[in-house]
Specification:
Blueprint (H helix, E strand, L loop, with lengths): L8 H10 L3 H4 L2 H5 L1 E3 L6 E3 H46 L6 H13 L3 E6 L17 H9 L4 E4 L17 E9 L2 E10 L12 H14 L7
Antiparallel strand pairs: 1-2, 3-6, 4-5, 5-6
């Protein structure tokens, strides 16, 4: 057969893709075409190469399934811890002690190295409670400006100094507490690991913590 110029490899590939009956009409090619195996320099038939490609795809799919199972197990664990934390909040009988208990339980359930909480605008805040200590207008404005929790490096934030060992904190998560649209508090989580609360991490889980904590602690505010 005379050669035809102007035909590219893509043309051939497209023809074969659009004509699946080609190899049925030329079945002898399946065994006669020799390819180089990716697992060595030995020559293999087209059929054997297809089997190798299929096995590689299966291994890739198996890896994805294992990753999905691992992520699912991690999510179940997080959900269980969130439920236990929520149950502790609901069972708390001492309303004045609720903020401190909430922080302590949060640290224990999620293995958080350091955590703190401040509230403002509460009624009859008891003396000596860390959560009732005054905060600056800058903190109030910052909390009000957060549409989602902040995650990132500890860049000398005022709220970071609430933590008992703030000098050791490399990354922070700051979660606003709201009743409706009004911000009335801030939870601060700190870690010596600079990557634990990275700017690229998802905030959906932290937002749920803020929603639950805000709903529970809003009982310390004056009646709306």
């Amino acid at each position: 057969m005379s050669s035809i110029t102007g035909i590219t490899e893509n043309d051939i590939a497209q023809y074969l893709a659009n004509n699946p009956g080609f190899f049925e009409r030329h079945a002898e090619l399946l065994s006669s075409v020799q390819l180089t195996s990716p697992h060595g320099q030995r020559a293999v038939s087209l059929q054997e190469r297809q089997m190798e490609m299929l096995r590689e795809r299966i291994r890739g799919l198996e890896g994805k399934i294992v990753e999905m199972i691992r992520n699912s197990q991690e999510n179940v664990g997080i959900t269980d811890r969130l439920q236990r934390w929520t149950c502790e909040i609901l069972a708390a009988a001492d309303l004045d002690g609720l903020p401190a208990a909430m922080v302590a339980t949060l640290r224990a359930e999620f293995l958080i190295p350091q955590a703190a909480l401040r509230l403002w605008g509460t009624t009859n805040a008891p003396a000596g409670q860390a959560w009732a200590e005054p905060v600056s207008d800058d903190i109030k404005s910052f909390a009000a400006s957060l549409s989602v929790p902040y995650c990132g490096v500890n860049a000398g934030f005022e709220a970071g100094r609430w933590l008992p060992e703030s000098a050791a904190v490399m990354s922070l998560a700051m979660i606003p507490l709201r009743r409706g649209e009004r911000a009335f508090g801030l939870i601060v989580l700190g870690s010596p690991d600079p990557t634990r609360y990275g700017a690229e991490m998802g905030t959906e889980f932290l937002s749920r913590i803020g929603d639950i904590a805000g709903a529970a602690l809003s009982r310390l505010l004056p009646a709306a």
